Amino acid sequence: MTRSTIVELAKAAGVSPTTVSHAFSGRRYVDPETKARIVALADKMGYRANPRARRLRTGGAGIIALASSMPFAVAAGPARLGFLMEIAAAAAVTALSRHLALCLVPPLEPDSNLDALEVDGAIIVEPMVEDRLLEFFSARGVPVVSIGRAPGREDIPSVDIQSTATARLMLEHLGANSRRVGLITGEQRRNSYIETEAAYAAFAAERGYSPVALRVDESGGESEAAAAAERLLRNNPDIDALCVPVDAFARGVLDAARLLDRPVPQGLRLATRYDGMRAKLATPQLTAVNLHLDQVAEAAIDLLIAAMEGKEPQPHAIAPPQLVVRESSAA
Asked: Is the pLDDT of residue 34 over 80?
């Protein structure tokens, strides 16, 4: 069966070929009833928008990148199904519905060559201060947005992942049945760490005790976190709960607790931020937070498209973070 052309579809719909193009690309407003009629006719006539032709008209590759400077030790997880991959899965579906292909940039080594990345736009997940990936794309004039604010880069559009609210959820839950709560975050300066540390300092002050917080180098992963948690707990035996936003670090804390004969949750209550496979497969299972990453990913794609087209982004309502209470923080 021969597919109908855009001219034939436009004639059948009583509109111009340009209107048909805009109905499928979303680049210009088309009346909803007109768009619905065009789509219904396209399905009936066997018309399919030609992405290759669209790329020739716009001069773009039709590809966007999703990347994170977090090392593999924390960005991935069991079967590589970690924080980055969950965002990627949701973002790929949304990108395809917007006629774009998503290129996932894997966690990079310091000497990785980025020159092969030819994309129309990029989403950086939780960039850190002077983030290499963010600077790479920005220097080449590629539109960039971030998931989580980029520290020191107010010019970069971002999707707020509500780190302060997430930290307060974990801290207040742990604090309800604990004498003293400690904190372990990442050494690299990402906005989620910065906001969490500020929330923890306020939380400790409200309860009248000095904060006990450590930062762990992300590249060390679980083993580095286990060693840091062991030192923290030996030096502060009154700590009976730990807020550990990085799920890889939280798994390391479980190892330290076993070594110190501080069973979780009887001797140490524990909560982490990301409700992924690490939290669900841990023994005991970890209390975590539903960050609604599907909504975050969709918002990031639309924010990037707006940046690529020089338009004002439309606001996206992302549901508040929800605590998922499991055995690791039982009273």
From this structure: yes
pLDDT in tens, 205-214: 999 999 999 9
Q: Are residues 272 and 216 in the same domain?
A: yes
Q: Judging by beta carbons within 10 Å of its beta carbon (0-12, 13-18, 19+), is residue 194 exposed, middle or buried?
A: middle
* pLDDT digit string, tens, across residues 61-108: 588 999 988 887 777 665 455 788 889 999 999 998 888 899 988 776
Q: How many domains does the chain have?
A: 3
Q: How much is the pLDDT for 81?
A: 57
Same domain, 279 and 196: yes
Half-sphere exposure of 19 (CA within 13 A, CB side): 19
Alpha carbon distance, N-terminus to C-terminus of the chain: 66
CATH number at residue 299: 3.40.50.2300
C-alpha closest to that of 143 among 114, 122, 129: 122
Contacts of 318 (CB under 8 A, 6+ apart): 159, 160, 162, 292, 295, 296, 299
Alpha-carbon dihedral of residues 251, 253, 255, 260, nearest 10 degrees?
-160
Percent helix, strand, coil in the chain (nearest 5)? Answer: 45, 15, 40
- In the DSSP assignment, the letter for residue 188 is S
Angle between helix 247-259 and helix 221-235 axes, rounded to 10 deg: 50
Exposed (0-12), middle (13-18) or buried (19+): which is 208, by Cβ within 10 Å? exposed
Going by the DSSP 8-state scheme, the letter that residue 311 receives in this structure is -
What are the residues facing 271 on neighbouring strands? 243, 287
Q: Looking at the structure, tell me whether residues 157 and 69 fall in a common domain.
A: yes
Buried b (16+ CB within 10 A) or exposed e, 36-70: ebbeebbeeeebeeeeeebeeeeeeeebbbbbbbb
Residue span of the structural domain in which 30 resides: 6-49
pTM value is 0.80
54 domain-assigned: no
Strands (E), 178-331: 181-186, 213-216, 241-243, 269-274, 287-290, 322-324
User: Residue 52's pLDDT is what?
Assistant: 43
